[in-house]
Amino acid sequence: MAEIGGGGGGGCCPPMDLMRSEPMQLVQVIVPMESAHLTVSYLGDLGLVQFKDLNSDKSPFQRTYAAQIKRCGEMARKLRFFKDQMSKAGVSPKEFLGNDVDIDLDDVEVKLGELEAELSEINANNDKLQRSYNELMEYKLVLEKAGEFFASAHRSATAQQSEIESQQQVGEDALEAPLLQESVDPTKQVKLGFLTGLVPREKSMVFERILFRATRGNIFIRQSVIEESVVDPNSGEKAEKNVFVVFYSGERAKSKILKICEAFGANRYPFSEDLSKQAQMMTEVTGRLAELKTTISAGLDHRKILLETIGDKFEQWNLKVRKEKAIYHTLNMLSLDVTKKCLVGEGWSPVFATPEIQKALQRAAVDSNSQVGSIFQVLRTKEMPPTFFRTNKFTTAFQEIVDAYGVAKYQEANPTVFTIVTFPFLFAVMFGDWGHGICLLIATMYLVLREKKLSSQKLGDIMEMAFGGRYVILMMSLFSIYTGLIYNEFFSIPFPLFAPSAYECRDASCSEATTIGLIKTRDTYPFGVDPVWHGTRSELPFLNSLKMKMSILLGVAQMNLGIIMSFCNAKFFKSAVNIWFQFVPQMIFLNCLFGYLSALIIIKWCTGSQADLYHVMIYMFLSPMEDLGENQLFPYQKTVQLTFLFLALISVPWMLLPKPFILKKQHEARHQGQSYAQLGETDESLQVETNGGAHGHEEFEFSEIFVHQLIHTIEFVLGAVSNTASYLRLWALSLAHSELSSVFYEKVLLMAWGFNNFLILIVGILVFIFATVGVLLVMETLSAFLHALRLHWVEYQNKFYEGDGYKFAPFTFTLLGNEDE
Asked: How does it sit in the membrane (predicted)?
């Protein structure tokens, strides 16, 4: 079995799936060519083998199955084309519920080719018809608008002509008549030409200006606005356009106008001056438009039927093509045997999967009628195996939180086991309010109860994230209710849920006094904070003291858990060096200082002493021989402190000095006259190197090892102080959450209630709800989540977690349906 260090049975912790990654092995599979495809397909269905690329030196085009992958890629392109066409037509692919795609790839390829050709032909014909339809629509608009212009011009000209003729008849002998009559020579009349068409409205003014300048003003142009948008025949997009009529003189002017029309994208259409011809053209255009509309409608119906036919089989074909492409990609990772008759593959698999893999290989050999079966064998290696944890829908999100920091090294202790409880608990310490916890719980239960339906839907980015972590949020909400009951806060309002308050007021002014104004009349409140503290002047000092000390206790407990986990690792990997020269001095140093502080806090709570713990801890270092006086909490405290201080000082060189020298001695003993030692004899020494900071190769740099150990020691000593202080964020965020909740309740809700105005009360309630949801249930939740994340990644996991492994990524078909090409 390909384990680094074999030590499977040396664990100090109870066996559980998440505590250690699954034992992995490097396996070799020799498969005959005729059954290779089916073998890889069955292994993909199994999803428990991570193949290694044995052809990494070859380019994709030099590999054995490059042609098949290209073929699958072409089919995938056709399927993407179909998907795009269905999306535009509003046709949804029919869901394919089965996983077994028993259709022939050659048949799929032929069918896809036929369908693509047919659909492309339909699209091309439809585009031609649509273009003709759009051109005729524009032509119809030109006929209407230009016809109106010519008709009005004709009426105006006729009226002017009749007026001139009447004037000439009446006033031929009048004094105002000109002495010389102007005579017009018919041979010298100028014949004007004209062009009609449509130009985009935003370009119409520039178009008119350019025409005027190009012809030096020798044109006459009229434009008419089209109220509705028209579809441009060239682009197929809707655009606002104007109909124009340009009158010109001469062929040079005409050629210039034609070039300008082309430059501005103006579509030109023929037009006749003759009114009868105009009416005839209008009739023809209207008839052709009706015919085209019917033809286009029939074409679209045919196209929709074809797309629906494709949609019925689309998912099945898509899955088949993806499967085949994945199989050939994997086959390209296998190396071709020298005989060219079989493929050799290597990969990682969990030990428990061996019988299932062998069964899949046998089934593939039988189903492919292969005369020779596949060969399966386990290889020995010093290579680091991948990390594989068997998770379920509940533990997956917690494992992802840990993996975001770093994937666990093979077989090292997994922080997720304890993170499942500690993460939501530390969140709840900062978020403690059972009213807010219930709101979170209701929102999460919606995601949990509808998970089957929601998992098959496409959600937004934020919703997708919340749905993925629904069980984390569920645990966070449950723990928030628990800590909220301890703090006795329901939207900052206390309730005597478990018993009446143990205290009563001596007089009416006791709420303004400190504890002197309260008299204890009953037994101590059985669970959590006594509700009578709320609203008194001493509430804040009391809760500050309580939460600050509680934060230190929780922090020291979790850091101790981290150091104990490092012992579990050392025990599992059989590294005595790490136990005696890392775990032991770290436990002594942390607990002689901060473990002692935690003990003093508990003793002070139990005895009701008035000792100043700040003074005790500061002068433990500054004046260790000084008498404690009133700060003494138990007999022989001074002697105990001196002992703890001495042990803490001794533990620093204990951590720093012995380990590098022991590693050096082990290295020398291992390589002196033992160059040809058996592989099995080096297991323990390999573990020492892997976990103790030495290199796995032959060179041993003592200076590098010593510097590494020096950095590690300094980091732990300083980190013991800074990490303990870091846990005070539990106190700070809990206080901030409580005070914000109190402000929203007192300054918004109660103030609105005090106005005795229904409208103000409604506004106050709305502001309170939005403030609670927006600030406390969204922003504060995110803030507490990030702080809990930091406490786990930095303060807890740095005590034992290396996180330099890599995930087990098996070849599987499970996720093919959800992947985008």
From this structure: Multi-pass membrane protein
Assigned token pair, 449: 């109860």
Q: Are 551 and 731 in contact, with CB atoms under 8 Å apart?
A: yes
Q: Residue 358: is it exposed, middle or buried by C-beta count within 10 angstroms (0-12/13-18/19+)? A: middle
List, in order, residues 6 or more apart from 691 with CB less than 8 Å away.
569, 570, 573, 575, 578
Distance, in Å, from the CA atom of 258 to the CA atom of 214, rounded to the nearest integer, reads 11
What's the confidence (pLDDT) of residue 684?
36
d(CA 482, CA 425): 9
d(CA 569, CA 578): 9
Residue (of 583, 556, 552, 548) closest to 568 by Cα position: 583
pLDDT of residue 687: 38
Type of residue at 227: E
Give Rg (Cα) of the chain.
Answer: 43
Secondary structure of residue 379 in the 3-state scheme: strand
Q: Is 458 exposed, middle or buried (0-12, 13-18, 19+ CB in 10 A)?
A: exposed
CA distance 221 to 245: 6
Q: What are 262's two structure tokens? A: 């082309």
Q: What is the enclosing helix (H) or strand (E) of 31?
A: strand 24-32
Specify the residue for token string 């309630």.
Answer: 765
- CA-to-CA dists, residue 119 to 89, 115, 273, 296, 310, angstroms: 13, 6, 44, 15, 10
What DSSP assignment string belongs to 738-754?
HHHHHHHIIIIIIHHHH
- What pLDDT was estimated at residue 1? 36
pTM higher than 0.90: no
Q: Which residues pair with 345 in a beta bridge?
A: 29
pLDDT digits (tens, 9 = 90+) for 13-50: 434 568 999 999 999 999 999 999 999 999 999 999 99
Each domain of the chain, given as residue ranges in start order, spans 135-157+190-291, 394-504+524-668+702-799
596-607 vs 613-622: helix crossing angle, rounded to 10: 140
- What dihedral angle (degrees, nearest 10) is formed by the CA atoms of 640, 644, 647, 648? -170
Show the low-confidence residues of the chain (pLDDT under 70). 1-17, 97-101, 168-190, 507-517, 673-699, 816-821
Helix (H) or strand (E) holding 411: none
**Token code pair at residue 508:** 């009416």
Neighbour count for residue 467 (Cβ, 10 Å): 19
CA 579 to chain CA centroid, Å, is 40
Neighbours of 256 (CB within 10 A): 17
Residue 177 to residue 330: CA distance in whole angstroms: 104
CA distance linking residue 143 with residue 43, whole number of Å = 70
Report the topology of domain 135-157+190-291.
Answer: Alpha-Beta Plaits (3.30.70)
Q: Which residue has the tokens 């009114």?
A: 275
* Contacts for 206 with CB less than 8 Å, ≥ 6 apart: 264
> Among 167, 163, 181, 82, which residue's Cα sits nearest to residue 123?
82
Contact partners, residue 212, CB within 8 Å, separation at least 6: 219, 221
Is residue 685 within 8 Å of residue 694, measured between CB atoms? Answer: no
Element of type H or E holding 189: none
The angle formed by the CA atoms of residues 546, 549 and 553, to the nearest 5 degrees, is 130
Tokens of 328: 């050939």
The answer to whether the CB of 788 falls within 8 A of the CB of 551 is: no
As a residue count, the chain comes to: 821
How many angstroms separate the Cα of 480 from the Cα of each of 374, 437, 499, 735? 56, 5, 21, 14
Contact 445, 802 (CB under 8 A): no
Of 386, 362, 344, nearest to 25 by C-alpha is 386
Cα dihedral across residues 337, 342, 348, 352: positive or negative: negative
Show Cβ contacts of residue 749 under 8 Å, excluding neighbours closer than 6 positions.
764, 765, 768
Residue type, 705: I
